[in-house]
Sequence to fold (311 residues):
Amino acid sequence: MKHPKVTIIMATYNRAHLLVEALESIVVQSFKNWECLIIDDGSEDNTSDVVAHFLDKDERFKYFPREKEHIKGLPGCRNQGLKLAKGELIIFFDDDDVVHPQNLELCVKVFVDYKPDFCFYKKQPFFDGNKSLDIKEQEIEIGKWVTTKDIESILKNIIPLASCTVMWSRNCFEKEIFNENLMYAEEWECYSRIISNRKIGLTINNILYFNRKHPNSNTGEFWKGNKVRTKSKINAVILVLQNLNNKNLLTPGLTKYFIRLGFSLKNSSIIYKTLNYSGAGPIKKLKYLVGYQIYPLLKPFFYLNKILKKN
Fold:
């Protein structure tokens, strides 16, 4: 892999007003051997006109409407991109973000020099009204190796693998693709499956991606209580639990983590499945399931106790 080709997959939907900035940050990449597949999820704005400008100027950009065989949504668009990709390396960028000009260059260097299955880097959030992006030239800063043994830290976001901060070897997606029934946390679920298959990655400590923070993002909608996003998170958690159980990767730390998630997402199925997969006895199961029923009454006391401890 001396001169690998990178496939950038970008799903888009009604983001014409932000898409230009995202695509321009790809045009100026210092690494030149790339293709960018723009998969349109049925935009009703002038996205096609915006993209046409880039298609006319640079043949490395390619534009496709989402095919009917894929479910509407980000996972379906990304799966279509994976099917069309010609690169040995795969990376996903969002249509509302900005990429550091050395993003591809430094990631490719990691693959050429160290030959991991994936590498990931840091990101920096920004707001439209306060946009100060650090795009100065960087030297690569190698971090540490990551393996299946780190799955707990990855799932708990101690080692943060965001959807657009990872470059993958194409072989990572030979057996695993995105679950198209998920409308939130789909990358968290998919990436955990890939890494649980004994794939090895390398971190780099460079900030190579700038993610735009706004209330209309999937994450913003989740934190506002959007029912579709919340339901998807619950389904993603259950799928992750099933995969961990099948591969004997459910640690005591993850057991506690998923039980807490069950409480925070107000979903008893997560708690029950976690207890069942972890081999909990009947008394422990009863304790947590009763606790779940009375948790709404006790929650104010837990909150008060937390404040008192801080003071």
Remarks:
- Residues 14 and 44 are 6 Å apart (CA to CA).
- The chain has two domains: 6-214, 219-310.
